[in-house]
Amino acid sequence: MKLICYVQGDDTGFEIRPAPQRRDWMDAAHQRAPYRCLPLVVANGHGWEILSPVGFTAIWNGSQATEGIVVMEDIGTKPPAHSHFGEGILTFRLPFVFRTNPDTDLIVQGPINRPKDAIAPLTGVVESDWGPFSFTMNWKFTRAKTAIRFAKGEPFCHIFPVRRGALESIQPEMISISVDTELKTAYEEWEVARAKFNADLKVEGSEARMAKWQKHYQRGVDPRGNTAPGSHRTKSNLKPFKRID
Questions:
Q1: Do 19 and 44 meet the contact criterion of CB atoms below 8 Å apart?
Q2: Which of the residues 36, 65, 114, 231 has the least number of beta carbons within 10 Å of its own beta carbon?
Q3: Sign, Cα dihedral of 217, 219, 220, 225
Q4: Residue 68 is assigned to a structural domain of this protein
Q5: Is the Cβ–Cβ distance between 116 and 175 less than 8 Å?
Q6: How many domains does the chain have?
Q7: What is the pLDDT of residues 170-215, one digit of tens each?
Q8: How many Å is the Cα radius of gyration of the chain?
Q9: Model confidence pTM above 0.70
């Protein structure tokens, strides 16, 4: 699968990078405990981030008008965002045209697992295999009269391709777990072991206290010691964009 980024101009100031596994708030957490959640860590790096070329501050007065947002640039810079739609929406215009394989869309969303106070990213699904179009990345203020800050080099957009129609081809089913007796037994064994482990975490000197958390999923084994079928990953390993002139 290919993901091509056509750049408008020689030096736009924008940078695109594989999304890193690390997050400041996870680093600052007690014992860096969020990193124990493997699905969270893998999701962190599941795509590419687009970084702001300059820093700026924006504030919304609560109105629906386009004039309701004021963007204040850092001295000597031009902000990459403005108010275009109104409704408290801050819009980033990107100097890129992305191309994907036929029948492949581009998910355009906010940076994964990077919460930001007073403003939330909006998500779009772009048919990036045919049109000569760029797109915008939009954030909606969730609180008026609160200044928000995008720093230089801060990610404001996260992208990754997905096959068009992949979700529509899925037929979801909801079945009682009792239908699969093996799964039911294994789940119940896990549930009992999980409850005991959590209880033992409160006991000084216990094995659970020393282990800190159960590591079955992280190691790719079930509670019975069976290895996960297929490939098990502990992080995403994306390639950076290669410049071709």
A1: yes
A2: 231
A3: negative
A4: yes
A5: no
A6: 2
A7: 999 999 999 999 999 999 999 998 898 889 888 888 887 888 878 8
A8: 23
A9: yes
